[in-house]
Known about the structure:
Pep_chain_release_fac_I, Double Stranded RNA Binding Domain, 3 strands, single chain, Prokaryotic/Mito_RF, alpha+beta, elongated
Amino acid sequence: MTKIYLPDxxxxxxxxxxxxxxxxxxxxxxxxxxxxxAVRLKHLPSGIVVTSQQERSxxxxxxxxxEKLREAxxxxxxxxxxxxxxxxxxxxxxxxxxxxxxxxxxxxxRKIHSKDID
Length: 118
C-alpha cells in the first residue's frame, strides 16, 4: 500500500478535498435546524471521508474535520516496526533442558511409587 502525503498548510489540504455542508441533527436548538453547519470532507487522492456536526459553527466543524482527516491518514500510514526475533543463549537452553530432565525424573518416580501402593 502506498503512503499518503498531506500538505502541511490547511488551505492546500482543503484544495485537495471536496467539502459538503448539510444540516446537522441533534442538540443545538433552532440554530442547528436552520443552518447548514455540519461538514463532510472527502480527500480525493486517498478517498477518506470524515464528518463533523458537533459544533454550531461550520468553520469550527471544518477545522475538526481537517484534524480528523490528518489523524485518519496518520493511522493509515502507520506500519508496525519489523521485529527481529532474538536467539536463546546456549546457557539458557542448557538450563531449560536440565529443568525438563529433573521434572521428568520426578514424574517417573511418582509413577513407580503409585504402582507400589496399589
